[in-house]
Design goal:
The chain is of the alpha+beta class. The protein is built from three helices and nine strands, in the order E-H-E-H-E-E-E-H-E-E-E-E. The strands form two sheets. Strands 5, 6, 7, 8 and 9 form a five-stranded mixed sheet that branches. A four-stranded mixed sheet has the order 1-4-3-2. Strand 8 and strand 9 form a beta hairpin. The chain is elongated, with a radius of gyration of 16 Å.
Length: 151
């Protein structure tokens, strides 16, 4: 591999989700791109798209993908142990407490009670973003950090 990992998230409301991942999670907008039907169709992307690349401060990238045809419907199904496919995005934080408060204010909802749980010496918190995609926050302040593992 030659570059950090990237993940694409299909969204209904591009502006709202860009604000959420930028202002609440701390990603930085790197660039925007319009993908015409002539590329998106043959590439298997379903047609015309707008893509916003959000750089994760520690490396990697989240791509917000908005189909121009408006075919995105419904909400993402929150994570469950038996659900196949992409389950959640993990973000490692120096201190997840301020992010937890910002998540509440931004319309995200916690997926656990208590909201922050101790797991293998780390504090973790699972949330559904405003469109239902699951986000995991990991804070190693209460234990030894083992790079490359979320919990």
């Amino acid at each position: 591999m030659t570059l950090p990992f990237e993940v694409g998230v299909v969204v209904r409301d591009l502006e709202s989700m860009e604000r959420f991942y930028r202002d609440v999670v701390g990603c930085r907008v790197e660039r925007r791109s319009y993908v015409p039907e002539s590329i998106g169709g043959p590439a298997g992307l379903g047609g015309e798209l707008t893509v916003v690349w959000l750089r994760v401060p520690s490396g990697g990238c989240v791509k917000l993908i908005h189909p121009r045809s408006g075919v995105v419907s419904g909400r993402a199904v929150p994570w469950s142990p038996g659900r196949p496919g992409l389950s959640y995005l993990t973000f490692h934080m120096a201190d997840l407490d301020p992010v937890v408060e910002a998540l509440r204010a931004a319309g995200a909802r916690p997926l656990s009670d208590p909201v922050v749980v101790l797991a293998r010496g780390r504090r973790i918190s699972f949330w559904a973003d405003p469109e239902g995609n699951v986000v995991e926050l990991v804070d190693a302040r209460d234990g030894n950090r083992d790079p490359g593992h979320s919990n």
